[in-house]
Amino acid sequence: MFSQCEILEDSKEQLKTIVREVCEPDNLPEQPELFELVQEYYQLATQKELAQEDGKRMAQMFELAVLDLQFDQCIDKVDQLISQSLQSSPSSGCSGLLSLEEFIYQVNAIAPQEMSMERFKDLAVKLNLSKKLIEQSISFKKSDYHTHLVCTTPFGNISVISWEPGQFSQIHVHEDKITIIRVYKGTLTHRFYDPVEHLHGKQGYRTKDEKKFIEGQLVCVGFHQTHQLANESQERLVTVHVRFFKQRLISCEPLENCEPDKSRPDLVDRRK
């Protein structure tokens, strides 16, 4: 991969152009502070791995972008610039397996509005999570399936879910989220649903597709798809979930183990 310094030097004029394009329609004067922010964002976004302090700084920038329209527009344009640079680089290493850091770097380089199921799947398939990391994240609960959040990123998260026989998720809609699910151990029963309206206007679902997936196989769930996961076998099941959210996440810090909250089924639904 190209080094951060080389990218920054070659693209400095492009960053200045981005700031000018954003400010000119509103007849705003030159804003050196905005350019410094844009340059800092570019430096962070092109790092292969963010240190904890860098992750906090990136989160602060996303919070600022919510309040500052010009900065938000600049971020979108910088994301597009990084995406174009990455695609045109012959040494980007896209043909081989990706470490967790490389995966985060490459996904983060793609502008959210340009992400598709196929594009995210191509990267997720190459993600090479260490067996040790996955094994350390496995934890079964008799009461319900157990989710261990491996890491969060500005674009989504990665988690490991442990299922005892007979455990299942609620039927839920993904809305603005893509999830690539890999079966690590066991057999997963997966169903897609079509929404149907019952009498009295109540929402119901009709099974559209049902399949079983074994170790190493992938399930791909795209934007606005409705689905359910279940362990209908007699053996334990472990699945690895790699998620992309079209809406940027504010928090970039790893979280502790997550367990389904049965008193809030809506929260349980969003864990898949």
TrEMBL record:
It comes from the Bacteria. Fe cation binds at residues 172, 174, 227. Keywords: Dioxygenase, Iron, Metal-binding, Oxidoreductase. InterPro entries: CDO_1, RmlC-like_jellyroll, RmlC_Cupin_sf. One of its GO terms (molecular function) is ferrous iron binding. CDD domains: cupin_CDO. Belongs to the cysteine dioxygenase family. This is Cysteine dioxygenase type I. The lineage of its organism: Bacteria, Bacillati, Cyanobacteriota, Cyanophyceae, Coleofasciculales.
